[in-house]
Design brief:
Blueprint lengths: L2 H23 L18 H23 L5 E3 L23 H6 L12 E2 L16 E6 L9 E3 L2 E7 L4 E7 L5 E6 L26 E2 L3 E5 L4 E6 L4 E6 L14 E3 L2 E6 L10 E6 L5 E4 L13 E5 L2 E8 L2 E6 L5 E6 L10 E3 L2 E5 L5 E4 L5 E2 L5 E5 L10 E2 L3 E5 L4 E6 L5 E6 L9 E3 L2 E5 L4 E6 L6 E6 L9 E3 L2 E5 L3 E5 L5
Parallel strand pairs: 2-29, 19-23
Antiparallel strand pairs: 1-11, 3-35, 4-5, 5-6, 6-7, 8-9, 9-10, 10-11, 12-13, 13-14, 14-15, 16-17, 17-18, 18-19, 20-21, 21-22, 22-24, 25-26, 26-27, 27-28, 29-30, 30-31, 31-32, 33-34, 34-35
């Protein structure tokens, strides 16, 4: 039983016993002797006193019931979705294997946040007007620039307004809406919605995470929810409205049976920002880092395996910081960042890669301890630095994309610049690799496919004809991309 329930129960017992004592005190003391009827004298002061005690305990109970910056406020299954339900087998293990994570698309930019697809039979051209290689297209009810995630035959995205947060589950093969779930959050109803900038993500910029057991989503109001794959709410965690001028934008990461939440906020000197590892089954905190020495950021953490040691890599001005994935203790930090940090790190060729306009493209060796700014940076690059888009790599090269429309390619091993190319459209989406191809979507919705090679070679250009801020997901020889209004599934049609 929760603390609030115990408080309310105790209050009711105290009031009952007190009123009983008052009544008993007014009964005749000698039942064997007949007494003349006497007017009953009621001790109104005692009654009012005990009512006051009960009301006080009631208020305390409601306080505990609604206070949840670091504790669960709700841990009950949600009401069944009104849409068609399909039973999903519950896995017997607490978390997915690495093979399962690679085969699916469990988080922003897929396994390890790399943007690399194991599925390579993807069309390089499509046409929305003629339907060429468009398997399906569905309109998403509520806006959100977050990216799709995929588990087996299900695709998930989120949408939100100032007062409503929703999660959508679509069938991968057909685009049919399986269920639509509005988040149940009693605490949020009493709060003013956060202030966000629509062009920087609105009320649900963060991409969800899915592990085959539940889907997890965080929103701009600090509400983090877990929904099972049949659309039932399992738990909700309220962190309170983040102190973030643009709105919360960091996406979620998974490590074993833990959900990793980067919650950078405030100034970096006020102790507000932390990273949390939550139990995916209950939402309870397993560990949290010390206060992070960085202001609000919008970057997404990654989990890497360096020399058989799992590290969480998180970016925020000015530090790239490594934490022990088991304990949350800091391992190393490198001063590689500047300004409003939005691009996420990647791990390629044994190096942690970070990039931000105003600083550098940095390749960090992840085997140090303490401040490694002067000892473990393998190389730096200065051209084509991104403001929003994250780096991507094919294992031999690193690619950067800017909001002005320039793609720049570096050799991964040496850091030598190989080429750059300017497009007419700018980029906020992050690029991906499938086979020997690289793909990135422009803000205006054009998908550019080019060769992953030492020389620039444009393969194709296709247009979705709507704004794109999200990054693609890949599953079973299909590519999913979210536009401002619609979700698209691109693939070869079966004959």
């Amino acid at each position: 039983m929760e603390k609030s329930s115990w408080v309310l129960l105790c209050g009711a017992i105290v009031m009952f016993l007190a009123l009983r004592r008052i009544i008993e005190n007014k009964r005749p003391g000698n039942p064997g002797k007949r007494l003349e009827p006497q007017p009953v004298k009621i001790d109104y002061l005692a009654i009012l006193t005990n009512i006051g005690i009960f009301v006080t305990l009631l208020g305390i109970g409601f306080y505990y019931a609604n206070s949840s910056v670091t504790n669960l406020v709700d841990h009950k299954p949600a009401q069944t979705s009104t849409n068609e339900q399909r039973s999903t087998d519950i896995p017997t293990t607490p978390y997915p294997s690495e093979t399962e994570l690679r085969q699916n698309w469990p988080r922003f930019r897929g396994f390890e946040g790399s943007g690399i697809s194991i599925w390579t039979n993807i069309p390089v051209t499509w046409n929305v007007q003629t339907g060429e290689n468009i398997l399906w297209k569905v309109r998403i009810p509520l806006y959100g620039p977050n990216s799709p995630v995929v588990w087996e035959d299900r695709v998930f995205v989120t949408g939100a307004t100032a007062k409503k947060q929703e999660i959508y589950c679509y069938e991968l093969n057909s685009g049919k809406l399986i269920w639509r779930k509005e988040v149940e959050n009693p605490q949020a109803s009493s709060e003013e919605p956060p202030t966000v900038m629509e062009d920087s993500g609105g009320y649900c910029a963060s991409t969800a995470a899915v592990d085959g057991r539940r889907i997890y989503a965080i929103f701009a109001n600090g509400a983090l929810v877990a929904i099972d794959l049949n659309g039932n709410q399992v738990w909700i965690r309220n962190f309170g409205k983040p102190d973030n001028s643009y709105g919360h934008g960091s996406s979620l990461e998974l490590y074993k049976d833990r959900l990793i939440v980067q919650l950078d906020q405030g100034t970096g000197k006020d102790g507000k920002g932390k990273i949390y590892a939550l139990d995916t089954k209950t939402g309870q905190t397993i560990w949290e880092t010390d206060a992070r020495p960085v202001p609000a950021s919008w970057s997404t953490p990654i989990v890497i395996n360096a020399d058989n040691k799992f590290q969480i890599i998180a970016c925020g001005n000015p530090w790239t910081i490594s934490y022990d994935a088991e304990t949350g203790k800091e391992i190393w930090r490198a001063k590689t960042l500047y300004g409003e940090v939005t691009p996420s790190p990647i791990f390629a060729g044994g190096l942690v890669i970070t990039a931000i306009e105003g600083e550098y493209l940095s390749a960090i060796k992840p085997n140090g301890t303490g401040d490694v700014s002067n000892t473990h940076i393998a190389w730096k690059g200065e051209d084509g630095l991104p403001e929003i888009s994250s780096p991507f790599s094919d294992g031999q090269r690193v690619y950067l994309a800017t909001t002005s429309g320039t793609i720049t390619c570096y050799e991964l091993k040496s850091g030598n610049k190989l080429w750059d190319h300017s497009f007419d459209d700018g980029f906020q989406s992050s690029g991906s690799i499938f086979g020997t191809n690289a793909i990135i979507f422009s803000t205006k919705g054009k998908g550019f496919v080019f060769a992953a090679s030492n020389e620039f070679k444009l393969i194709s250009e296709s247009d979705l004809a709507e704004e794109v801020l999200s990054s693609p997901a890949f599953a079973k020889d299909k590519m999913l991309i979210r536009g401002k209004q619609n979700l698209y599934c691109i693939g070869f049609k079966q004959r």
